[in-house]
Each structure stands twice: as structure tokens, then as C-alpha cells.
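Protocol step 6 of 9: fold each sequence in the batch and record its C-alpha cells directly after the sequence line. For illustration, a two-sequence batch is reproduced in full.

Sequence one:
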Amino acid sequence: MRVAVLSDVHGNLRALEAVLADAGDVDVVVANGDLLAYGPSPRETLELLRSLPSVKFVSGNNDRYLWERRWLQPPSDGWEAEAFENLHWTAEAIGPEGIEFVASWPAGQHLELGPGTLVVHASPVADNVGMFPWTPDGQLSHLVRSVEEQVVVCGHTHLLMDRQVPGHRVISDGSAGCPFDHDRRPSYLLLDDSGGRLKAEGRRVEYDVKAAVADVEASGAPFAQVIAYQMVHATLMPKHETDYLRRDLVRYAE
């Protein structure tokens, strides 16, 4: 079986189209969360994914924020206020039926692939607790300790990764919309066990970043400056880079 796993599209339709074109004829596409918010084309992104002949969805933290109506909570600062506005704008773009569909996505998908594969958005413990390339082996083992499958595929960090800890192989598909490794090419994971052993290839594809940024500017989406910056520079805006890393470590410690 050949499976494409992609995550963190964040409404970047042009990047998603490039990824799907590169993946070609696969048996299943696993859309591994954070698919819609913080991009110019959430409705079109959802429509394209739903139109695929065989697709499985996994819920990410930003997908959850949509059906939780996170924008109704008091923001902690102006940055978060604008981010919440984007969530509200995204929810209106996909409509009530879209929200209901997003709310139906599971936290993980089991695949009869290789020795058994579990796809989760961030980690098996929570949809916002990431597994990073620099996560210590002991902490990584702790995060996957309860998983029966030998292979765990994740997203959330926007960083490609392929690591081995005792009993588990942990692979990240990166981001099919907005990578954070200073390489603007979207990434995804191609899994193939047709040869008897599981092969996992992290793939990068070219797409028109300037056109995607123009889409952001034309969309009227809140948070547009941050979205465009992250598309162009393939990294988080400096304001939140440290908080982003610390937040995941704090949530793990809790």
C-alpha cells in the first residue's frame, strides 16, 4: 500500500495542490490536521481534500479550535486577538456544515501499513504537544509509550523528522502548507510497504510562493501579515518562536 500523509496545510491551497500532484496515484491520503486555519483558502482547501477518492482525516489543535469556537475566549494579547479573528473568519468561510464535519475528525488513524502505523497530529498524548527533532529520546519514548503500533507518524511542528527510539519509529511529515525549517517548499510523507518493508520518504515540492502570498493579501484574512511572513521565510515570526518551543515543553511537563 502507498499512503501520502500531509499535515499543517493551513489553508494554503496552492501548496496542497503541488503536494497532491507530486504524490500522484496513492491508495490513501491521510490529512493529518491543522488543515484550514491561518491561510487564504480554507473553504477551497477543505473542498479539495473531501473530493479525493480515498482520504482519512485526523484532527489537529487548530481544527479543534474551530469547533470549540476559540474566538469567544478572551485573548491574552493583540497577537492572539488577531489569531482568534482568523479562526472566526475561517469558521465562517467553511460554514456550519464544514464545522460539523471538522468536529467529526478523530484524534488518530490506524493504518495496516508495515508493522502497524498510527497517525496523530502532534503526539499520542495531545493534539498540541509536539514531537520535535530535538526532543530528548527519553521524552520521545514517554510520549509514545502507550502506542501499540511500531510506527508513529505526526505533524504539528512543521518540521520533517525520522527517529528511532526503543520500540517505535517516530516520523514527522513536516508541513504541506508552511514549513518552519527555512525551506519554503511544502513537505509530506510517502509511505510504501509494497516491497515487504515499510519505506518512508519525506518529500519536498516546489510551488508559487509569490502567488500564495498574493492570495493571502487578496483574501482579507485576519492575521495576514503573520501568515505571509511565515510563507515567505518558512519560519515562525520571531515574536513567538521562543514561546512556541517553551509552550510545548511546559505542556509536556504538566
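Sequence two, same batch, same settings:
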Amino acid sequence: MMHTVNMPGSLGASVTATTLRLLAVSVLALGVTGCGHRVDGGETAALTQPLQTVEQRHPIEIEKAHTSMALVTPAAARGLNTYQKERVRHFVGLWRNEGAGKIEVAGNDRAALGDLRDILIEAGVPVGAVAITRYDANQPGVKVSFARYIAEGPKCGAWHENLAENPNNDFYGNFGCSAQHNMAAMIANPRDLKTPRDQTDWSSAARNDFVFRSWNGGGKTGGDTTEVVHDGNVSDVAKK
């Protein structure tokens, strides 16, 4: 059923309720259109622009880099000395944590290469993870290298904008840059930002369950201790 509303005025015209609704919608549409702003090309921009995230505005670049360590062995030496062996062990540990490929080995000293092979076997490095490369050096010695990921943070310090004038009420150009820069500098292994780690070194679920049940029941959660620790004495001198 159509309702008729008598509009007072000089015209004395009668307007239907449907016509009033159409007029209200038209006025509202004109008001919304007037709130838009002009952009290049004469097009009217939308009321709300999709804001970029901090990661999109200031991305962290992940690249591959080559890390190497060369050890020179004197002619009178018979292989690697104790200090050089410790350096190799530390380097193999870095490869385990950060390596993005095989560990490369090169050298022209037979005795040093033998020591290097023994260290790799001791560390449990599989044969398939070792690559023999060419050794380009005149001095006798060995060289160990591997590829790893490095994180390069964004360059910050863009303060050319006037923060007091922001008609769009969006993020300023330098917003979130320092947080991204610090994250790139502090992350232990940039490979974690590119791909998840291998899930082969999980801890024992049975052991975790045992420790949790022992802790929840008020029992011991550590391993067996010596009798001296149970007595609370550092040594047996105090007992005499």
C-alpha cells in the first residue's frame, strides 16, 4: 500500500514515501562523493586506502653469502696444531647452525687434510655433506667454506616529511623502519625468515612427559646427583 505525504509549501504537491527515500539516498551519495579527494588523472580516490604493513614498507632482504676460513700450515708442521683444530671445530659448528648447503673442503697439505677429515668424522658430518673444491693458494694449508644466509635491514632515517601535516592520517615514511633494522641485526639465523628448519632434532617427547609429570607431582626433574650434592657440602673437608 502506498502512503502519500502532503508537503506544505507554495506548490502544495504531494510526494510519496518511496520518492522521499530516493531523495535521501541521492543526497547521501552526493555527500559521500564530496568527501573524496582528487588524484593524478582526475579520478576520485576511495575513502579508505589499504595500508601497507611494516614488513611491506621496510622489507628485510635475505641473501646468500660465502663464509670461508683458510689455515696456513708451516712446512715444518705435521698437520694442524691444537689451536687450528679448535677453529675448525668451531667453524663446523657454525656450518651446522647456519649452513645453506654443503661444507666445502680444499687444501694442498696431506697431513692437514687428514686432520680435517678426522674432525669432520668426529663431528658426525655425513660424507654426502662434504664437497671437495680446488685450493688456489701458493702456501701449504687447508680451506673450509660454506654458504649461508645473511639478513640486510632497511636503511632508516627518512625524516623529510612534516609529521604535523598528514591529511591522509596514514603512517609516516620512517614508521617501523628501526624495528625491522634491529630484527635483521639480532636474528640468530636469517634462514628462519626464508624457510623453516628441519624437524629432525626434536627432543624426546617421552622425556618431556616424564619431567612434566615429576614436576607436577613434586618430584625431582633432574638427573641423579652425587652424595656430596645431596649433603649440601662442596667438599668433605667440613665433615672432619
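Proceed to step 7 once all outputs are recorded. Observation for sequence two: Residues 17-34 form the longest helix (18 residues).
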